[in-house]
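target protein:
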Amino acid sequence: MSLPFSAHPGHEHGPQPSPARHTPAAAASVHFPAGLGRPSVTAAASVPPITGGSAARGRRRLAALITLAALAGCGGSGDSTDTHAHTQTRIDTLGRLAITEQDVAAVHIFDLDTRQIEARHSLAAPASALYASPGKRYAVAVQRTGDRVQFIDGGIWQEDHGDHAHDYRQGSAVLSWQIDAAAPTHYDPMGNGQVSIFMDGRLDATPAQNAGVQLLSEQSIAQGRTIARLALSTPMHGLAQSFDDLMLVSARSTPAVANDTLPDHLQLYRRSGESYQLAATLSSSCPRMHGGTSSGDYTLVGCEGGGLLLKREGDSFTETPITTANRMATVLSHAAVPHQFIGLGNSTAPATTHFFAVDASTATATALQPEGWAAGTTRRAHGFDRQGRLLILDNHGTLYTLQFSQGRWTTIKRTENFIELPDAAPWPTLAASGAEDRVYMTDPRQRQLLRVDSQTHQVEHREQLDFSPAGLSWLGITR
């Protein structure tokens, strides 16, 4: 089936305005090299005319004002703190990590340069999930049970100043702006710089609270606003994939009922200002839809019997069912490995995680088994490194690294007993650095943070924490 598609650029360019920020936590401390502070400079709005015998003085005054204006022209935006002179526009930094605690309403910011906690920030409720914003400046603390999403400015970012990129560093802070909506759950970033947050709604509320979608970008977070929002007609555990002014959104054929809130097909919406209008309903069925992501012109969503692959071609979408031996409930992709997806799903007796490699260019799925992955082995954590290598941690504490090469995924490293797992969740979590080819892993049992070489599995650092870590997200400047 072909669907109308008319993409209009929806990117939002320009310097990032400074968001409304709470005062940083009292425990926060940021250290900068001596002499890198920038004095406050204000350029004059107008220059008096130069006349008579004062011409020489006037010329000197004009030169001074021009110099001041040039200095003031590259100072970031709003109340941002430039931590270095204009001649030093690059900061050598590994970034920071946002870390949550299980069942604790707080986020810790760990500075990777000083290898210390930079600040601890209180949240309104414990975070059910933690993500990075599209530009990696903000941590996004999703609070499903608290019906809220909060944003923490990690304090390290980069701005495009036209003829150069300018790096900034300051203390982290919680933004005063937040999103209040019923059961925020799925967070779906796109390669176009947009991210959609799907709000599941609440079937058990009186009256029921319906699902919805809110669209964000790095700039809209900085401005304290959503780009657009969509209200749906039933509660639903769903997803959304945004393509500039178009968005694929999960839908149900019947209203949700207890123990049945998963979608079964997709609809296409077109954005008009800050709202959406229904453009088309896709014909393909996708029972028990769960999990989805996009890579280039392709989107794959997980279904009961495999997945549904969609390809965007100019002004149309084509739909291709993908059949696999097990349900795909999680779908992964990485920009460094275009048009390739990995689907995951569990079977029972014994509980086992199954992997499927989906090549979107040929619309084919192949069973993928990491080296040594036996029946009864389940995934506990996964994540890509910066280069698109996939790391998987299983229920025995074995760590795997898979790499895509010559048209297929292969296991390039397997390390048994890499970590001792706790008896129950939270399990270890993985986050990739955007500044180097390293990944970070939480060790909840030992209350540690590990820096790991994704190819050799060498643990380069173990940082002791005074809390048991749960969620993890890398923030900073990607290189």
